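Practice problem: predict the structure.
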Amino acid sequence: GMEKINFSGGEPFLTDRGEFVGQLVQFCKQELKLPSVSIVSNGSLIRERWFKKYGEYLDILAISCDSFDEDVNVLIGRGQGKKNHVENLHKLRQWCREYAVAFKINSVINRFNVEEDMNEQIKALNPVRWKVFQCLLIEGENSGEDALREAEKFVISDEDFERFLDRHKDVSCLVPESNQKMRDSYLILDEYMRFLNCRNGRKEPSKSVLDVGVEAAIKFSGFDEKMFLQRGGKYVWSKADMKLDW
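Answer:
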């Protein structure tokens, strides 16, 4: 019954310069015959040769872009050294068009970009979807004593998030995700094939599907199917069904 898989990280293109995730994408499309295979990336390591080799097997490429101001990207931690993140975004958008991959943008709205007006840039890039997330704290990951990074300084209120959404209400491809929608509506598997339950504000792992099977493990995933549908999780996600001008 599986229809869609999404590879995200970390950065999926780190391993073997993208070869590993490319082989996974090809396997999911050719062997598993999944209707939708997608990747979330910051785009810094993607080269045109990857599209030439694996583009036909990928339905959607989502690029993380939190700001169209390069100084803000550096402040947030999206800086790419000598590369200009925004210029790279336009290059990736063109490759997606040339190699028939649906282009998507993911933005995390936080204290440093909440006042930004992105209308003009998003409309120019014309993604199939613009996922707009409210910055979410996860204990042990970006919050708390054992956290890999501290995100408290990035947090915004629900009211701030709503103001950002209202400023961009004319962008037809915008898909908003508040903290509440995000926390319960994803099926997340880690590298040990364990479902991660985020309902209690931290990622609590199930037993691995390799040990107990999917049916047993998924009961501890915290997945809310109603919220998944409410946030627009089900959409036209196979490029074969999209009426796109490549």
